[in-house]
Amino acid sequence: MFLIQRLEKVYKDGLAKSIGVSNFNVSQMERILKIATVPIHNLQVECYLYLPQNELVDFCKKHNILFTGYCPIGSPGRFSCTGKGVEFKHTPNPLEDALVKKLAEKYHKTPAQILIRHLLQRGLSPIPKSVNEKRIKENWDIFDFELDANDFKQLNSFKNQYRLAFWDFVKGHPEDPFKDERN
């Protein structure tokens, strides 16, 4: 909790306009909110079709914390660019999910656009990553359509199944946010 006190000092000194944390779970967020004197403005965590983080999203909405989701399309290029200390599990590719592909065809969009739009319609801030100029432009081309209620409901039916990154460098640490999910 030393970290939050340091972040609050930076905020109170006028060196930051907001405070955010990353890769915290509900339990950690609850503990922070009990001692915080400055509101937490943002939580950034992995969030995509197969890890919708519903409990964490609900917590953030209840406490007026912006929820930013990284890996919104399932990070299909992750195996070619992983750094030291990052273990990625082999998981199904949400870009190949039958429902996502069906909706992409229905809306004349790419599967990535369907996945990004879904998170946006949930009230979240998806942050897709790409180094490909064409895909970067496609990722922004999501504001000219909305998923209808039935399609949105179908995408919302997915539960937490697959975490992509387990951050090995925190394994064994008392504040490991993923300790309950590790094998």
Automatic annotation (TrEMBL):
Gene3D superfamilies: NADP-dependent oxidoreductase domain
Membrane-spanning ranges: none
A Pfam short name: Aldo_ket_red
InterPro entries per record: AKR, Aldo/ket_reductase_CS, NAD(P)_OxRdtase_dom_sf, NADP_OxRdtase_dom
Domain NADP-dependent oxidoreductase as annotated: residue spans: 5-158
Domain of life: Eukaryota
Name the record gives this protein: Aldo_ket_red domain-containing protein
GO molecular function, a single term: oxidoreductase activity
